[in-house]
Amino acid sequence: MQISEAIRGGRFCVTCELTPPKGTSIQGFLNAADMVRNYADAILVTDNQRAVMRAAPLILCQVLKSRNIEPVMEICIRDHNRLALQSQLLGAAIAGVENVLVVAGHDVLVGDHIDAKPVNDMSCSSLVQAAVMLNQGKDLAGHNLEGSPRFSIGIEAIAEKGLKPDQVADLREKVAQGAQYIITQPVYEPETMAAFVESVSDLNVPILVSHIMLRSASMARFMNSNFPGVNVPDYLIRELEGLSREEVPAASVQLSIDLLRRMKPLCQGMHLMPGGWERYVPRIVDGVA
Asked: For the whole model, what pTM was predicted?
């Protein structure tokens, strides 16, 4: 199932993000996938998110396919050159992956291998172009392929009020190259989401709003300080302050439902980032429906 086709067919698309293990044991990953599989149209597998080394997303996507779960493979320009990026995409297609999300990745200095050398051989826009060329049966050098993929290609975006002209131009270039849907960074203010949607309305591509469930007031403050483009407003933080550990999950889930209900009319889907709270995904999806 291609995400872009499902959305254009009228479905409000739900994707859920899972992180590969830091090691070879995948049971925890599979347990998380089983918790959300009946509530998400697809599961996105991250690619060394926040510059922390983990298992490659391609193999986890293949495992999901073997369990009849639709994967989205995140592919990051930071860690690979154009040969490796194209090779990964072809490998994903062989494994049956139809959906990819192109991302830039965090600076290696925020991760767990600060001596790593970022590659950045390609921009996100040029990787979108490369994926489109592979769809058309050619590699970046213009050589013919023996069989071609059929990718639905997504990109990420920071949803802000008053997007700068260069930010809009960057998104426009990626869409012109062939990006078919946008997944935002987490948004906690419906007014911000509305302004972002208005700023990019002429791009005519589906938008999925991302959401991280807030596990504490201190987590929300950390996100405000360390996640570019993310702003959890003070009133939401205050609603979590002073709650016991036992009281937080129910309050957080209700905050998520209320926010996503308000943003649902503005977008074509939602991207949930549970971060260990996969058990609450069913309640949120049912609450937003």
From this structure: 0.96
